[in-house]
Design goal:
The chain is 66% helix and 0% strand. It is mainly α. The protein has a single domain, classed as Bromodomain-like (Up-down Bundle). Helix 1 packs parallel to helix 3 and helix 3 runs antiparallel to helix 5. The longest helix has 29 residues.
């Protein structure tokens, strides 16, 4: 007889899967297809690291329902923060507002010769340009990240509410 995954463990695998898949997609785009990330692209990667770690923690502590509910809630809030970063980036790409200063600037430490060499060899990645958009909808990776993170936020918050109700004996 197969053992059924508990709801917190299932959510943990979903959160971890979303995080790992998003990061893998970003790194494949960067290293396999030469789509170098701008500063805002890099900022969007860090929340996936946090949610991935939350997913791992949730997987190993699923029976402590209150703790599971808090981890699901925290993962949801981090996904929401990532959606906000991606929405800001989407607006910069579409020229709705200005981006961050120094977006895409190379490392300026070291000697003048080292700095000049890095500038010459650095791939240019600007926050206000769309390096790739899908051919059907014309959406950028930042646009898709907004959607992914908002859906992930809703999933985590719903799971957190369900888990908390279960922990309090309402279910």
């Amino acid at each position: 007889m197969k053992k059924k995954l508990s709801q917190p463990r299932l959510i943990a695998l979903l959160v971890l899967g979303i995080s790992v898949t998003a990061l893998a997609g970003a790194f494949i785009a960067q290293y396999a297809f030469g789509l170098y990330p701008c500063k805002l692209c890099i900022y969007q990667r860090w929340p996936f690291v946090v949610t991935g770690l939350a997913g791992i923690a949730l997987f190993f502590f699923p029976d402590a329902l209150r703790k599971a509910a808090y981890l699901e809630f925290i993962a949801g809030i981090v996904f929401l923060a990532n959606a906000a970063i991606a929405l800001f980036h989407s607006g910069v790409e579409r020229k709705y507002w200005e981006g961050l200063e120094g977006c895409g600037a190379p490392d300026m430490t070291g000697s003048v010769a080292e700095i000049l060499e890095r500038i010459k060899n650095a791939p240019v990645a600007r926050c206000d340009e769309i390096p790739w958009a899908d051919p059907i909808f014309g959406l950028s990776m930042a646009n898709y990240n907004v959607v992914l993170c908002l859906l992930s936020f809703l999933l985590c918050i719903a799971a957190s509410l369900y888990t908390m109700r279960k922990a309090n004996g309402y279910l």
